[in-house]
């Protein structure tokens, strides 16, 4: 095969600094073309299919000789006449940064054969206008830009003929503006602050700097708020916020002052300068504008004092424990809780004294319990020595006293926190002819008491009336008889030898005793005598007829009763039942008869109460001889034989297809039921019509098909 013809280059040009594009007329029979670029030092060959073709891998701003050869299976043609083409300038390599939030600085290295440079800048989102600058320098600055905004920068160099070279594109964001509207919310309880601000355009992160003296805290976040923990009480901090993005940081905001809550007051002292007055004092604290003292007593009552000074006065009561806490306040809030102090005042003075002679050589001293007292001490001085009694109870029994001997008796109250209360004024208590001073000393005369009375007889004068007799032993004594039981206490009083206990409850057991009281005191109680009252009658009694001849009777429990006897009685006969239960079935009841109802409640010891109730009337008798006759109109006629012509009856017909009834006029002993569905089995009951209560269900049934 013959080699192809030599191609002829139409044009050759360079649009990129590393390539030249060649255009030629196609050669008949050529299957490929070889492009060659020579610069004197080197050459580069490229095989292409057709025109145009591009030779790559060239050097910028370099003059090349370009030739083309056509190729087929027969070989290569001779090179075409050459064309001289120079590659365009290389693109400047940009170095870009944002020195401030509204400017971008661009710089580059010198480009070979470059006569000047063109740099353009535009917002990447397409908004706004494009800025363009031509320069022969290797740097420039764009100003008055939008903070935190992404810009696209394009630059290229041109040669002495004004031919532009390759361009270089770079995206650069301006640094963010400083945040605005910085606010600080301080949490006084947790000693931390939440700093917030308005989000800044283009900011990716924020940094909050908190400093106080040499202390510096930092909080970094990507949101528009930041939590600054672990602040110290009684300190003033300054906070500033800086915004950051990939271009750099904004200027920090103006410092915002934050004063934390004051620290808890210290050196707290509590003094009771006089009884009933507490003085609480403390040391002043930094940043504390005023103070509040809370005093809470152990009964839950709380008072407080608000002051700008360092002490407060409170009223106090004896026998209380007070819990005291002091807080400092300023605009930021309340100081943390400091130590809680407690102060216990001296116990209260004993009062309401009573002196009771238990026997000729024993006296019992009692008094009202006082608040704050853990222990009481009773001293009886006289005779051959001192009788001492210490106890936590509000009573003291002084025994083995010498007869006809004066004693000085003193009672003191003590507490573990404040020992004895020495500020109590003397209390005077008179008991008969005995005079006692507390806590100052006074004589007590010893007088012999009356002997115990002896109960001679107890008799019942009525259902709830009991007469008690005893043997008197002191003309000046007043006798008190007491009946004591689970139901309570009953008393009667007399200066003679008997008295009557009234209104004792039924069904109750008592223990009866007597005491004698005289100006010298009270005797010991007599021996107790047991007493039982008759059982109570049941409050509720209900009768329900079960059949014509059987009635169920039930009643409520009668207190004190063990067994019951119930009786239904009429001129026709009597029905009786004796049972341990609260119900009974009575048979042999005659229908249509009025009965009297009685019940006897019997106790375990045989005491009996007879109870009467409202009379009872048994139901009317059921009819006899009930017969059924079919009628022509799908009905039946019901006949019966009435037990009493003054009683009206009702016939009930019940089946799966319906229920029917009929009631004749008074005096008739039949009635008709019509339009009864056929093909069913019916139950027929004829029963007396009652004035009140449910229908009788115990009358005989007839089956009708």
Automatic annotation (TrEMBL):
The record, for CDD domains, names: FN3
Q: Which domain of life is it from?
A: Eukaryota
Q: Which InterPro entries match?
A: FN3_dom, FN3_sf, Ig-like_fold
Residues covered by the Fibronectin type-III domain: 3-90, 91-177, 178-263, 264-348, 349-434, 452-536
Annotated Gene3D superfamilies: Immunoglobulins (2.60.40.10)
Name of the molecule in the record: Fibronectin type III domain-containing protein 7
Recite the lineage of the species. Answer: Eukaryota, Metazoa, Chordata, Craniata, Vertebrata
